[in-house]
From TrEMBL:
Transmembrane segments: none
HTH cro/C1-type domain segment(s): 10-63
Xref: InterPro entries: Cro/C1-type_HTH, DUF5753, Lambda_DNA-bd_dom_sf
Descriptive protein name: Helix-turn-helix transcriptional regulator
Top-rank taxon, per record: Bacteria
């Protein structure tokens, strides 16, 4: 989060100074990709470098000092950095945002969301995505996913989650009948959490916005001390070769509208829980 905030401030300063990325890179004797990584919050930054950038951009002294202090915060590492060997760079950014979020609105069309997966289910999903990895790396990736789930049940300010799963997620037998029975039973259990509203978009609902959008997550962040938005809402969509981050207001508004449409097409909490239990029972009978 500090990296992202710092990057946004530096981008605004560059634009106010009427520097293109190329011109800024030339003045700083850096590469253009380095400027891009800084402005998108993908790298930490030394306070000395921030001072140099602020000087070139003509930033006032008070703002320069504040951004230099923020740069020191970008060096701090979250718990997930211990798994740096198995986290792609693009997803490292997401995990940091997820950890800082006050709320998440999630739509999943094909698989259970990572924060709600059982260990066996997660193992099957990860093995499918990374079919050539060894057992040790597989265990590390599964462990990372399970560690992320403590976010949902943490004592201090757990985020509010609104999650919609397509009925296809329930019907696709990943890992076999026993694995699916346990996974759906787990969903029934966690759906009782006070900060989780879990719903199913049934086949009977017909077409809805999720058919066009595919899976996505809208993250919103805690307000600053004066009640203003400290960090803009962000849409994240996970792709086969990388992640997509969107935070421009028109983009977020479109995904907000899409999520609302999907939400309206879904069963309510009680009906969703009954369907989850019913499908879990059918898997148990088949297993």
């Amino acid at each position: 989060m500090p990296r992202r905030q710092l990057g946004r401030h530096l981008r605004e300063l560059r634009q106010q100074a009427r520097f293109t990325v190329r011109a800024a890179a030339r003045a700083l004797e850096w590469s253009e990709p380095k400027i891009w990584r800084i402005e998108t919050g993908q790298t930490s930054l030394r306070s000395h470098d921030v001072h140099t950038m602020c000087t070139i951009y003509g930033a006032p002294a008070e703002l320069t000092e504040a951004l230099m202090a923020l740069a020191k915060e970008t060096k701090s590492k979250g718990w997930w950095h211990a798994y740096g060997d198995v986290i792609p760079e693009y997803f490292d950014v997401y995990v940091g945002l997820e950890e800082a979020a006050a709320s998440l609105s999630v739509y999943e069309s094909d698989v259970v969301h990572g924060l709600l997966q059982t260990e066996d289910y997660a193992r099957q999903i990860i093995r499918t995505h990374f079919h050539d990895i060894g057992d040790e790396e597989l265990d590390r990736r599964v462990q990372l996913r399970i560690e992320r789930q403590t976010l949902v049940t943490r004592v201090t300010a757990p985020p509010m989650l609104r999650v919609v799963l397509s009925e296809a997620t329930l019907r696709r037998p990943i890992g076999g009948h026993r694995c699916m029975a346990a996974q759906l039973a787990h969903l029934v259990y966690v759906s009782e959490l006070p900060n989780l509203d879990l719903r199913v978009a049934p086949f009977a609902a017909g077409p809805h916005a999720g058919i066009m959008t595919g899976p996505f997550i809208i993250l919103r962040f805690p307000p600053s001390g004066d009640g203003t938005e400290a960090e803009p809402p962000t849409v994240y969509a996970d792709g086969f070769t990388g992640g997509l981050y969107l935070d421009k207001p028109p983009e977020v508004q479109r995904y907000d509208a899409a999520f609302q449409e999907i939400w309206q097409a879904s069963l309510d909490e009680q009906a969703s829980r009954r369907l989850l239990a019913e499908v879990a029972g059918s898997y148990e009978q088949q297993g």
